[in-house]
Amino acid sequence: MPVPRMTRPTRTTRTSRVLGALVAAALTLTTGALATTASAQPPSYTPPSGTHTLVTGGLALDVPGSSSNDGTQLDTATVNGGTSQNWQFDQQPDGSYHLVNGSSGRCAEVNGGSLNAGAVVDQWKCDSTSTNEFWTLTSLSNGSYVVSSVRSGLVLTAASSADGATLTQQVNTNSPQQQWTIGSTLPLLSGTHSLVTGGQALLNDGQPITRSVNDPLPPDSGAVESWQFVRTAAYTYKIVSVPTDSCVILDSTHEIVEQGDCAGPGSAWAITTLSNGSFTIASEPTGQLLTSNGEGALVTLQPNSNSPQQQWTIGPDTPVPSGVHTLVTGGLALDVPGGSSNDGTQLDTATVNGGTSQNWQFDQQPDGSYHLVNSSSGRCAEVNGGSLNAGAVVDQWKCDSTSTNEFWTLTPLSNGSYLVSSVRSGLVLTAASTADGATLTQQVNTNSPQQQWTIS
Question: What span is annotated as the signal peptide, if there is one (predicted)?
Fold first, then answer.
């Protein structure tokens, strides 16, 4: 049973609510000293509208079973884009936040208003006078945040790095389980894009189907694969076919995905960013996800199964083809130092020289991810030890087709470069600096130039 709730002092009159969103903050993080106290002043930014996921060690803050019960202890779960992992950040005049769950409508709180380390963090009916429902966000130099209770000053902590780890408040020890990355569930999708999952592009051929991005459209087909995302007042999107101005919609039964009038409620879709840089597209009426069913097949709605066919990216019409490529950031190439063939050799960057130690065989997998095999060593780029932590070494190791820490996804950016993300952790390939010989690690995506790779 929940600990009896404490009487709280009445808060002063609130100003207009501002929906918190921290993607903009991630673009402007400083590299200052690590903040270790909950009393530290929150970072300065103007949050755009939207809801967010909070992720630690590749797992998202979650309401188990999407429960709406007061007193349900929060836990962590595999990032899946579901509403139980969506949190509305409702900023207060003092800079703290209400964290409101997208599924239950309840707020994250310290049960009973406890001041003790180890107290349960659960959900409860939101109360504007309850200080144990308010949280401050303190940015760290690695791009993550400490989330601290306003009432106790203790920090939001996952019990372990395992799926299903329970949440409590604890003294800040700089543990990875106390460091949270914050992703927007409403990414900026301005402009016109192709929409791709697992090497299949969404195509308007009178009905929404998918086809291989490697197959050119017949010039007389009349089909198009250009889409525009139009945000609604309810923070959902309409997915509009260009140039037909029809939308991806649900039929009147809310079971069939089709093209049609953009005015109906079946045309609203919620976009949720995942830690690997892709996103899910959920039907607002049903909560189910837009799912590719392969070459030439109609897209359908399916329950969330964490399938790669439910994870979409926006970008060019063709993926990076299998074959030998170089990866370059800041004019320097991804390299195996000295052409070493030793397992565990940390990768670095070096002046582009055309050598085999800078050549990488891109072997695309059925799910659209890649093995990156060095032409000199025959070893694969991997995250050492399968670590889920920011800062883990990226090295080379004997290739293993069953090892998820050797697989990488490529997310195209608007400037023509790519994010290279670990399938296992969702963190991105990052050079330590712009200097020749900079070592490679995985880090939270901060939109740093050292995380953006051109591929040739």
Answer: 1-35
